[in-house]
Amino acid sequence: MSNIPFRSDQLVDELVQFNQNLSQGVKNLLDADEISAGVTPRQEIYSEDKLTLYRYQPSTGVVQNKIPTLIVYALVNRPYMADIQENRSTIKGLLDTGQDVYLIDWGYPDMADKYLTLDDYINGYIDRCVDVMRERHGVDKVNILGICQGGVFSLCYSTLHQDKVQNLVTMVTPVDCKTPDNMLSHWVQQMDIDAIVDAMGNLPGEMLNWTFLNLKPFQLMGQKYVSMVDIISDEKNVKNFMRMEKWIFDSPDQAGEAFRQFIKDFFQQNKLVEGGLKIGKHDVDLKNLKLPVLNIYAEQDHLVPPAASKILPKLISSKDYTELSFPGGHIGIYVSGKAQATVTPAISEWLNKRS
Amino acid sequence: MSESNPWADQWLKAQQQFVGAWSDMAKSSNAGGNASQSDLWSQSFELWRQACQAQTQPDIQQAMQKCIDMGKEYFSMAEQISKGMTNGANPVEAVNQWMEQIKQSMQQFSGVPGFDSTAFGDFMKQWFNPTQSWQQMADAFTPMNQAAWQLPGMNTSVFNMGEAIDPMGKILSSPGVGYFREPQEKQQKGIQLGIEYHQANFEFNQAFLRVASESIQGFQARLLKIDGEATPKTLRQIYDLWVEISEEHYAEFAMSEEYQALYGNMVNRLMILKKHYSEITDDFLRAMNLPNTREVDTMQMRLQQLRRDNIELRNEIKDIRAMLKQPQSAPAAKATPVTKPAPASKRAPAKTAPSRKKAVARKAPAKKPDAVVKKQAAVNKAKAGA
Q: In the list A81, A198, A301, B98, which could disulfide-bond B80, CB 3.0-4.6 Å?
């Protein structure tokens, strides 16, 4: 048997230190100001129902890409992940490298929105936002950058409306939702989605939170808070930690009908891969997608495994396909320093060459 | 933070108590007697937290609570290991003793539904986080279900006893009689669905209990093999190793067919139960001449369809208006093919943002060319008539 080389008094010292850090951390938490969501200045351009289309204030002193870029975020969680703090903002990175950035904020659907379908989201909301941008800028086409579930929406939208899209960027986007390492997909296979939507109306954000946290429960609900003690004992880290904490638990409810179709068509029947996907009256066949595509995935993504994204080039007809692999996780791809230094400039460079 | 604040004073007191108690414990194995140092710590911390609660924002309060909860579990682990060491065990033996205690506690709960995880020791809460948090969430979604279990005689402990359910099943499946036959049958069905959900929840929890036990064995086995750089040198490293091994066992379980079936069944049963009680509630509201969910649903569905129709019509009007303008500069017959509208730039794009909630010019997706041509023909006809 091996031995663990520590003594009883060392253990006490360690606990006393932990306790001091905890008390300092809690003091720092108490002293913390209100946590803001999103940092880059922006202007409301258009709104409809719960949706708001924002335009971020372009950076001065950089050559501006004439084609504006629309960020389509997931319905799950909130889009300020892409603009979480001053020095960790994907949006700021895009602005600083010449992109004119718009973002759809889906808001918080309530029971009055439960009959919103994927057709309403994709051929309705997204299409109207794209039209607003085309008119404002006097251009035929815009760039679209889809994030996670928003990437799935963007793929569908771009396939159906290629005359309005110049370039498509997909980030951590699940295309093949039935790869063997996809835990979320594994869990929903025997769920009666009709029963869930019929019983709940909208899917509560708490239920989604529970699901995401239980992908790694020991790390996300336990170890994180033990580690947090070390982090927040330093006053400078409190705000950043709390921003992330706020984002993790800021989960809007999901409009029932859209959720029903999303889980059944994408996660249970994998229709983007297997075929047969319809959004409203329109068939979506990725084979029709001929636009330039930049597909970015995260190598340690526990929500969207890389294989789920990497299948994309086999399904589309684009002759201009680029793939970018990021050595990090689903969230790190937006908030890590490494991502700011590599991913964001790469997106801008790719877009600038094609606009 | 001012030293004159009452909660700051309380905090100072708690710190003194804490450091004193742990120092005593380190000096003597008998110090503290049976009193739990981690309880003492969490009690004093809790008092302090309550004192300063009013001064914090809700987001911060939640984070603080989680931090304190995890701190308590961490201290509980430390206490168990420390006790073993002050009794003469080496650190590995102390960790193993602690694990054995947990295993023994778990065995007594095996087969008992609705287990109270606090009895496992605070540290073990982690292993039951998924089941505990599920329970809290399910309770929040189905208050009527919880109320049903408070009825006299509704002791959930019978639901794992296989045959004991049968007599109740027979009672619940007996036909309703008389004027209130239908509501009576609905209530019976509700209780039956409740039993089915609790059974599914019990099976889910039992599987967790088994995997938790396997996880402990895995941890002990790893401790036996571990050497060199990988050897934990601090309490924190022992904790991190425990998390790593638990996560491995959990991931294997969570990706199994068994988990998929147990979890799916539990969720489905809960939803069927919730839907049933919603229907009962709807019946009650209807009897009271109050709007119910079914009626509101119908209105919402119709309203959503109306809004879609409205948007479609607005788009068509916009297209027709655009077409009406075209012939003023060029004859309609020579107009650009309408199936491919001119670029937005040639259609005098708005220089300022459209006003809030105002629809903008739009090309309808995949609009069928013949439909548009027909529309153009109608416009021409109208103009000719004019």
A: B98
Helix axis angle for B181-225 and B129-141, nearest 10°, is 160
Cα–Cα dist B232/B245, whole Å = 13
> Catalytic: A148?
yes
Helices and strands, number each (H, E), in chain B: 12, 0
Distance CA B272, CA B279 (A): 11
pTM of the model: 0.81
Query: How many alpha carbons lie under 13 Å from residue A291 in its C-beta half-sphere?
Result: 30
Q: Which residue is associated with the tokens 């029963």?
A: A195
CA distance A170 to A156: 11
A100 CB near a chain B CB, below 8 Å? no
> What tens digit of pLDDT does each residue of A111-169 get?
999 999 999 999 999 999 999 999 999 999 999 999 999 999 999 999 999 999 999 99
- CA B369 vs. chain centroid, Å, equals 48
Q: How confident is the model at residue B208 (pLDDT cuts 50, 70, 90)?
A: confident
B74 close to A225: Cβ distance less than 8 angstroms: no
Tell me the C-alpha distance between A124 and A316, whole Å: 23
Distance between CA B143 and CA B141 in Å, rounded?
A: 6
In B, minimum Cα distance to A180 occurs at B255
CB contact at 8 A, A138 and A164: no
Question: Is B233 in the A-facing interface, judged by CB distances under 8 Å?
Answer: yes
3-state secondary structure of A84: strand
Residue type, B62: Q
Residues of chain B positioned with their CB less than 8 A from the CB of A232? 67
Assigned token pair, B210: 């088994």
- Residues paired with residue A282 on neighbouring β-strands, in sequence order: A279
Q: Are strands A142-147 and A165-171 parallel, antiparallel or unpaired?
A: parallel
Q: What is the per-residue pLDDT for B23?
A: 58
In contact, B80 and B101? CB cutoff 8 Å: yes
Contact A226 B236 (CB under 8 A): yes
Please judge whether B268 and A191 are an interchain contact, meaning their C-beta atoms are less than 8 angstroms apart. yes
Q: Which residues are within 8 A (CB) of B261 and not within 5 positions of it... i.e. 6 or more apart? A: A190
Whether B1 sits inside 8 A of A164 (CB atoms) is no
Q: Where are the beta strands (DSSP E) in chain A?
A: 42-48, 51-56, 69-72, 83-85, 88-89, 101-105, 142-147, 165-171, 277-279, 282-284, 293-298, 321-326
Q: Is the pLDDT of residue B259 over 60?
A: yes
- Cβ-contact B242, B276 below 8 angstroms: no
Taking CA atoms, A241 is separated from A63, A163, B321, B342, in Å, by: 34, 42, 53, 50
- B34 interface with A at CB cutoff 8 Å: no
CA-based nearest residue to A62, from A101, A26, A33, A31: A101
**B359 backbone dihedrals φ, ψ, rounded to 5°:** -70, 150
CA distances (Å), origin B283, targets A201, B145, B296: 18, 17, 14
* DSSP letter (8 states) at residue A255: P
Domain boundaries, chain A: 42-350
Contact A1 B254 (CB under 8 A): no
At the second CATH level, the architecture of A42-350 is: 3-Layer(aba) Sandwich (3.40)
Burial class (CB in 10 A: 0-12, 13-18, 19+), B377: exposed
Say if B112 is an interface residue toward chain A (CB within 8 Å). Answer: no
Residues 6 or more apart whose CB falls under 8 angstroms from that of A32 comprise: A238, A239, A242, B57, B60
State the Cα–Cα distance between residues A24 and A116, nearest whole angstrom.
47
DSSP label of B176: P
**Which of B15, B41, B81 shows the shortest C-beta gap to A11?**
B81
